[in-house]
Amino acid sequence: MRNDHQLDNALARLGTMPEPAPPDGFMDGVWMRAGQFQEVSARRTRLALFAAMAFVGLGAGFGTTQAPANAEPAAYQLVDGADLSPATLLHVEP
Q1: Segments in the chain forming alpha helices (H)
Q2: What is the average pLDDT across 77-84?
């Protein structure tokens, strides 16, 4: 379109064309698609969080199973040797 006259005519025709109107329900479809994108994003986020929690949980489990466990008797210095049965505390003779 090296001819300026043809270019002016083409631009004039484009300027007189009516503006295309979106079809009925177009915006509803747009919002529905946006909701689908949000749902997919939320699903990916939940999956990533679940995978991270599983990884941390398994890592902590494997890390602590190798630790030795020692059972020691509990020693309470305040009540060591004291008889704390209900009969003794109430001063009741059997």
Answers
A1: 4-16, 26-64, 86-89
A2: 64
Q: Which residues, in sequence order, are CB contacts of 92 under 8 Å at separation 6+?
A: 86
Q: Name the DSSP letter for residue 77.
A: S
The H-assigned helical ranges of 65-92 are 86-89
pTM higher than 0.85 for the full model?
A: no
| CA–CA dist 7, 16 (Å, integer) | 14
Contact 37, 28 (CB under 8 A): no
Pair 46, 52: CB distance under 8 Å: no
| Cα gap 8→38, rounded to integer Å | 46
pLDDT at 52 over 90: yes
Query: What is the helix (H) or strand (E) element at residue 80, kind and residue range?
Result: none
Per-residue confidence (pLDDT) for residue 80, from 0 to 100: 61
